[in-house]
Amino acid sequence: MKRTESLYKRHRFPPVIIQHAVWLYHRFNLSARDIEDLLAERGIEVSYESIRLWCIKFGSKYAKRLRRRHQGYGDTFFIDEVFVKIQGKQQYLWRAVDQDGEVVDVLLQARRDGKAAMRFFKRLLKAHRGKPRRVVTDKLRSYGVAHRELMPDTIHDTAQYANNRAELSHQPTRVRERGMHRFKSTYQAQRFLNAHAAVYNLFNLGRHLISAKHC
User: Fold this and answer.
1) Residues 6+ apart with CB under 8 A from 105
2) Domain limits of the chain?
């Protein structure tokens, strides 16, 4: 209890309102101004600037808690990278999801060479606490370099269309990117994407948890 109180110390609004505002921001395609209006309808008068600062301060803390409570990922990783333009410079957003659509990790990097692939694969091994049984990628040579160096015993599938799951997993990020009128900096983008991935996983009901009659 003391830990919770210290986290929200000197904040005028109670924790439940702060938590709700941050959850709205990361769960839905809403701006801070949108959330300001939604709270105002409930008689809660808070400025969009306060909401923006709450998201910056608490988003990463909530995401860290969610990752600690996560039950673990599957044994197959689908990996892909897409272009993201930030402040006029081209960056690469690397993403890995498992067979149930859970986001294993996201990482913004300036390159997509062998060193960048190695860095991302090391993060995946740390998140998974071991090597996956199978990784699925496109035919980018950088993936082959990282695979040979870090997980040579893992099956590496580069078949055409096999990686569609990873490519489709970028869509929620693209929606948020448009809603935010592009990311403002690499640091801001990485901070948001970490929190967004954790919240996405929280609401991602894996197919293995759904009975056949509901499919």
Assistant:
1) 94, 95, 96, 120, 123, 124, 127, 197
2) 2-69, 76-202
- Nearest-angstrom CA–CA distance, 4 and 56: 17
DSSP state at residue 213: G
What sign does the dihedral 136-118-89-178 (CA atoms) show?
Answer: positive
Question: Residue 208 pLDDT > 80, yes or no?
Answer: no
Residues contacting 131, CB < 8 A, separation 6+: 125, 151, 153, 154
First-residue to last-residue Cα distance in the chain: 41
- What's at 94, amino acid-wise? W
Q: Answer for the pair 101, 76: CB distance below 8 angstroms, yes or no.
A: no
The neighbour count for residue 206, using CB atoms within 10 Å, is 14
| CB proximity list for 212: less than 8 A, separation 6 or greater | none
pLDDT band, residue 206 (cuts 50/70/90): low
Which H helix or E strand runs over 120? helix 114-128
pTM across the whole model: 0.85
- CATH class of the 76-202 domain in this structure: alpha beta
Instruction: Specify whether the backbone of 13 is left (phi greater than 0), alpha (psi in -120 to 50) or beta.
Output: beta
Distance between CA 102 and CA 62 in Å, rounded?
17
Residue where the block lists tokens 């809603």: 179
